[in-house]
Amino acid sequence: MVARHAMLIEDEPNIAEAIRFLLRRDGWEVTTLGDGGVAEARVREQRPDLVILDLMLPGRSGIEILEALRATPDTAGLPVMMLTAKGQGRDREAAERAGADLFMAKPFSNAEFVAAARSLIRA
Amino acid sequence: MPFNLLVLACVTYVAFLFLVAFVVERKAARGAARWLRSPVVYTLSLSIYCTAWTFYGAVGYAARSGLEFLTIYLGPTLVFIGWWWILRKLVHIGRQQRVTSIADMISSRYGKSNLLGVIVTVICVFAATPYIALQLQSVTLSFGVFAAAGTYGWAMPDTNSTALWVAAGLTLFTILFGTRNLDANEQHTGVVTAIAVEAVVKLLALLAVGIFVVWFVASGPADIVARIHASSISDWELVPSRWAGFTLLSGAAVITLPRMFQVLVVENSDERHLATASWAFPLYLLAMSLFVVPIAVVGLEVMPTGANPDLFVLTLPLSQGQGALAMLAFLGGFSSATSMVIVASIALATMVSNHVVMPLWLSLRPAQSVSGDVRRLVLLSRRLSIAGVLGLGYLYYSLSGGSSALAAIGLISFVGVAQMLPAMLGGIFWRGATRNGAIWGLGIGFAVWVYALFLPSFGPGAALPIDVFMQGPFGLDWLRPYALFGVQGMDPMIHALFWSLTLNTTAFTLGSLFSFPGPVERVQGLAFVNVFDTERAEPQGWVQGRAEPEALLVMAQRILGDEAALAFFEAQAQAQGKAGYLPDPVPEFLDALERRLASSVGAATAHAMITELAGRARVTVADLMRMAGETAQIMEYSSQLESQREELTRTARQLRDANEKLTQLSVQKDAFLSQISHELRTPMTSIRAFSEIMMEGDMPPEMAANYARIINEEAIRLTRLLDDLLDLGVLENGTVQLNLKLANLSELIERSLRAASHTRPERSFTIQRDLPAEQIFLRTDPDRLCQVLINLISNARKYCDSAQPELRLVVRQRGARVIIDVIDNGTGIPRDKQSLIFEKFARLTDQMRAGGAGLGLAICREIMVNLGGSVSYLPGQGGAAFRVTLPLRLEKSPHERAA
């Protein structure tokens, strides 16, 4: 079986490190990006199976990237998981409106996170 | 007396005056010179009316024409006793309109016409030239007296080069003191005080010689009275026409001479001083004339026939072997000459630069009025003008041969400046006086003066051919310079005075009656004539909203200097109820700004510069209404309504501002909670994830160590955030412990720059500092101050978006406060955000993007409050600019002091 490819867009290096560890242990191939500005282009270029997007990013916000991805047919159906540290209802609504498949508040439990990632691929 | 000793005495004396002026300027700069602005100093400075002409020449005049010399004092005495009518009004107008010279006053009255400014300037330069020559001549003559008396020491150079040296020395002194101020402000406290000192010296010198003559040469007052009866002076008979003419002339001169106008009006710091001067100045004149006749009588008796009576003050003590007394008399004469030349050349240079050089330069390069460095130009043109004026004086001296009697030259000047009298008095008493009338009057009066008095003064055949004197030009008999219109047998001086003033006044009156004043002229005419009624004249018809406040600020900075312009704009903004912003370009503000600029460059130029930026409406209904004096009551009522309306508008604006701020704050409060949540959850995420990973066990020890390190790092980050929040809390409550000690500001800045360089280390900034200015020892909490500076510098490093980023650190000391400006060259902070940046969690970048926690400036503000100072945003600096103000010596924390 070809390794599932996840692209992680997260500017906090330590959180990125943790997620990478968790997903690799679960058998994923993980690419990480720290800047929002180049994220959309990378996604289009590398075609990952799952995109994990942080809400607050330098360069370009997670919501904007998500809206751009949903706007073209070839990436409209790409599974996207949204992460946020604010944990407020408003942010969740904004993410869902923009077309996020799943919304995860920081901090999260490792098991829940991995399960959520798997569920998005299967669905 | 040896000539070199004499030169040494002069140089020492001038150096002493220099020191006086210097010390006074420094005291005045520190605001500690209140006593220097007393009525006594004001009165003494008026004594530049008594020049070397009075000092030496009055005795000569008395020896030649008896008591007629008194007319020269009588005119001013009458003018000062009647100060309530003319002088009070002149000084009041001068202060209200911030007049810089007599040319400025006349130009301002007649619609800020620069043509009039130029005409008056030309008249003044022409009239003052013989007068300055006269001072050079008297100093040269008095040098000659000493040089002839002693044969050892240096030989005296020929008189011409002595005059040249004197002129050069005076130029240097005047430039050093008259144009030292970078503010180009019209008041010269130092010079005025030096002149007051000279006034004392010349009075003492003349009194000393007089006392010596009465009690030591003669044997007391009774003997003197007997000698006067015996001398030829008692044969003198009063000529009514000369007596009345010269009294009028000297009365006119005391208000129209540029140098008198300078000390009387421009340098006046308090109108109440005039009340003192009204009796003290005539008293001074009386003291100056007390011993004139005794000295003249004894001189005629004792001195050999043929001795120059103009020099009796000097030669009489010398002939009696009183070297020291003669030396004092010499210094008295020297004082009289130098003080006159200094003030006259400052006054003339101001006129030349404001009315000739500046308008010329502005019309050649109009764009530069906004971007060029006007202040440097103003100072340069003044310096050159001073040199030019003294150069002309020297030229006249060497051309006229320095031979005519002192009194004659002085009177020529008097008649010249008297030509300004009709335009000036008409301007302040007659609303019907117009610009055209003034131009015609001044032009004709000046022409008659040049033709009938000035040119003939060079002697027959020198400037005018002898034929013209005898037969008139082109054989026109009625145009002979000394017998205009066939009027023969008059004294030439009275003849010229009579015809020039008569024709001048007639032309002025007729010209005014037959011409129509323009709108600006009407407004100014009303403001001048009714100066005591219209304390707050309505603003002129500026078109609102045409001028950008930023452009106005830039222009004002070029002329007034950064500091003064900014202070002025801040005060105006405060008055408009919008402190912290630039003021709105409402008509009141433009008017105030024009008046402030006029005090540096003159009314006409200031008016032109503001019009350039703001544009002006033509005659408005308000203008016309103001012209009709009868509707004053209606006006009063409507102006009350107006001011109430203004008040309401201002209150409404303040309410709107407050409301806007509250709404924004409420949005911020939500953002604050969300922000706190974000800042706490981010490190928590790493900690939770890695601790869970480690709880599962079963991993290589180096990996475990690495993850433990991450957990530790994030825990520290959490602690730091909590520390910041607590710090802010402590600072806001005022329970902070300050660690006060002495610290060198330069070292603190160095430390802050080094610490801040860790922020975005890849960016290289050009840093401008002024190390000497930074050498200030502060008593404050150095660590806290550094914290603020580091924050401001780091912000600049983070947010300055220029391709060649620059950082300027400007340090200034203002009294007991220190100002530190941190300025970058980026786009700065948009106006609508300027009031928010010091709030907690305010970040200028979009809320959805990551950045700092937004506590930095809030902490800075609280620290500065605790250090007894403030930090604020400085608008209009061409980049983001922050101003930190703090006390030089903080004794206790403000909260402790309050407790």
From TrEMBL, chain A:
One of its GO terms (biological process) is phosphorelay signal transduction system. Keywords: Phosphoprotein. The modification 4-aspartylphosphate is found at D54. Residues 5-121 form the Response regulatory domain. It holds the Pfam family Response_reg. InterPro entries: Bact_response_regulator (IPR050595), CheY-like_superfamily (IPR011006), Sig_transdc_resp-reg_receiver (IPR001789). SMART domains: REC (SM00448). This is Response regulator receiver domain-containing protein. It comes from Gemmobacter aquatilis. The lineage of its organism: Bacteria, Pseudomonadati, Pseudomonadota, Alphaproteobacteria, Rhodobacterales.
UniProtKB/TrEMBL annotation, chain B:
It comes from Gemmobacter aquatilis. It comes from the Bacteria. Keywords: Coiled coil, Kinase, Membrane, Phosphoprotein, Transferase, Transmembrane, Transmembrane helix, Two-component regulatory system. Its main location: membrane. This is histidine kinase. It catalyses: ATP + protein L-histidine = ADP + protein N-phospho-L-histidine. PROSITE patterns: HIS_KIN, NA_SOLUT_SYMP_3. It is an enzyme of class 2 (transferase).
